[in-house]
Amino acid sequence: MSEAALSKPTERPPLRVRLALRDIDGVTLLVVPAVVFVLLLFIYPFAYGLVLSFLPKKGGWLANYAKFFSDPFLYDTIWSTFRLAIPATLINVLVSVPIALRVRHMRHRRVLTTLLVVPITLGTVLIAQGLLIYLGPQGWFNRVLAVVGIGHVRLVHNYTGVMLSLIMSGFPFTFLLTLSYLTGIDPSLEQAAATLGAKARARFVHILLPLLAQGLAINMCLSFVQTFSVFPSAVLLGAPAGETRVISIAAYQAAYEQYDYSMASAVAMIMGFCQLGVVILILAGRNFLYRGSAAGGKG
Amino acid sequence: MAIAGRDFRELRLDDMSRNFGTVNALKGVTLTVRRGEFIALLGPSGCGKSTALNCLAGLLTLSGGSIWLDKTRIDRLKPEERGFGMVFQNYALFPHMSVRRNIAFGLAMQGRPKAEIERKVDEALAIVRLSEQGHKLPGQLSGGQQQRVAIARAIVIEPPLVLMDEPLSNLDAKLRLEMRAEIRRIHDVIGSATIYVTHDQEEALSLADRIVVMQSGEVLQVGTPEDLYVRPARAEVAEFMGYRNQLRVGAARAGNRVAINGGAIRLEGTAVEPFVEGNAVAAIRPDDLAVAANGPVEVKTESSQYHGGYFYSSGRTADGVELYFRSDRRLEKGEPVRLSADPARVLVYSGSGA
Q1: Whether pTM exceeds 0.90
Q2: Can you tell me the distance from the alpha carbon of A13 to that of B304, in angstroms, rounded to the nearest whole number?
Q3: Domain total of chain A
Q4: Quick one: closest CA in B to A201, which residue?
């Protein structure tokens, strides 16, 4: 230690140095736009909606919530949404695993991944349009079935139609995520397991799956949140007054058919807490899984 | 069919080759490894030594040739059916399993009883001197410890053959020396054959019973470390064994020596058979080219590096050939010195060199 530092123990280093020690410098300013964005477009509307939901047109401050949970036409929407979101999420995530397992060894992986990105860019409305034409009563699919003699199958304007659309638009997303998690696992781990006598199934169960579980949990959260807020395909491809009357439709009707923004906010809040609840459940389950790196050693 | 246990006499690679597209990474490697032997595959990067190791492990299929363990042909078996232990360059420890579970993995895959697994894991931990670390995750260990776990995991299944792919390349110099001794000790304890891939000639010389020098997918020479060091069979091998001076010269027999003529370099050397007079490569180790007051070769010093006790220097002859030699003191840049070499240590190879 230098003598100067000893003789003047009370002198503090300049502010710049003290901030730098806490990793705060000029570059830190780059987060300002993001913070402003989050405050203005997420925190503020959310808080506004939350407050608004407690200011009903008539009745006490909980009147909107009381109304929602006493009217089956409203509270049943939670069930119909879960009925779509959970199977769609599970199908998308679980089906993506075996396909990604195969695809990661393919040489023309980039061509395939590019093809898969297309449905994401198309958007749900175009997918709905395509499915309506293709699978509708006069569509090719049913006409072929009629020629073969199987008869007519109803695939749109019901639960099946919405589910198909959720899989079509959601699968590429979950698949690409699964693929990137899978390719992040050091291939020498599988090779090491093989030299130790593990057959393909054992390698998957003991090595790949535990290292992938973390990514699959995140993937499920994202996929679930996406499918839970389904709106366009539920309206276009489903039976929006019947079995695919999802919670976002209830919120839309409150806001734009009854012009009850307070009620609409309450529905949105309930929807948000349903999503949050599932995400917390998944993430809590994650604590039982290995969470570290998927590399084989110090490289 | 799984091969287990260390009871075998020899492993035979018969004309083993492997292509990647149009590239021949291995061009017909033939080699016999006896039980208990420590073999080093030595060569520059891209010489095919890792490809050879992966072919042995079953991680790559052969394009041609065969691999035999005594009378059993094994090159069509999957890696999990061969039962060889492999230590990967990056160790490839399962990051989500404790050290114990990593080591137990191979035994568990064989379906051994729990008590036996526990006992063998304890033994393996003791062999690699990690008995206290069994409960930790690999990420909590140092590089040297991880490396020893990787070795323990490979040897606990009692493989007939242990394959090691540059296992020391990620360690620092001091640890590398320690682990080198450790690897040889473990090899001697377990008594199976070890095939060890490295690009470090010193590592190969100190560890191996026999060294296989490879280049461009071919075996250049197989021999004991002493053989290779003192009498490399080819100029390329000599270059790899530290004969840094590779001089293109004309050579003619002179009694039982060879007179070499390389412009300003005129020395006597020893022919490496088969020898034909004419164009030749003279290979001299810097250690064998020393400063001598009346030596036959004169150079102007270019640089001088201290190596502890002596200096490695380089200089150029009047016609611009660079020579590496040893000196007892630091030489000034441009300082003229005369060099001489013992004819027995100047190896002369026919041909125009690599």
Answers
A1: no
A2: 46
A3: 1
A4: B109
* CB B351, CB B274: distance < 8 Å: no
How many contacts, defined by CB atoms under 8 Å, are there between A and B?
A: 98
Closest Cα in chain B to A213? B96
A22 in a structural domain: no
State the smallest CA–CA distance between residue B338 and chain A in angstroms: 47
Domain assignment present for residue A265? The answer is yes
Domain that holds residue A201: 54-298
The set of residues, in sequence order, having a beta carbon less than 8 Å from that of B239 and lying 6+ positions away, is: B246, B283, B354
CB A175 within 8 A of CB A243: no
ipTM of the complex, rounded to two decimals: 0.82
- Whether A197 sits inside 8 A of B83 (CB atoms) is yes
**Domain at A161, CATH number:** 1.10.3720.10
- Tens digit of pLDDT at every position of chain A (299 positions): 445 445 555 678 888 888 888 888 888 889 999 999 999 999 999 999 999 999 998 888 999 999 999 999 999 999 999 999 999 999 999 999 999 998 888 888 888 888 877 877 877 888 888 889 998 888 888 888 888 888 788 888 899 999 999 998 899 899 999 999 999 999 999 999 999 999 999 999 999 999 999 899 999 999 999 999 888 888 888 888 888 899 999 999 999 999 999 999 999 999 999 999 999 999 888 877 777 676 655 43
- Asked whether residue A46 is assigned to any structural domain, the reply reads no
B286 touches chain A (CB under 8 A): no
Three-state secondary-structure class, residue A11? coil
Name residues 152-191 of chain A within 8 A of B (Cβ): 186, 188-189, 191
Which of B85, B94, B139 is closest, CB to CB, to A195?
B85
For B256-268, b where at least 16 C-beta lie within 10 A, e where not — what string? ebbbbebebbebb
Has residue A27 been placed in a domain?
Answer: no
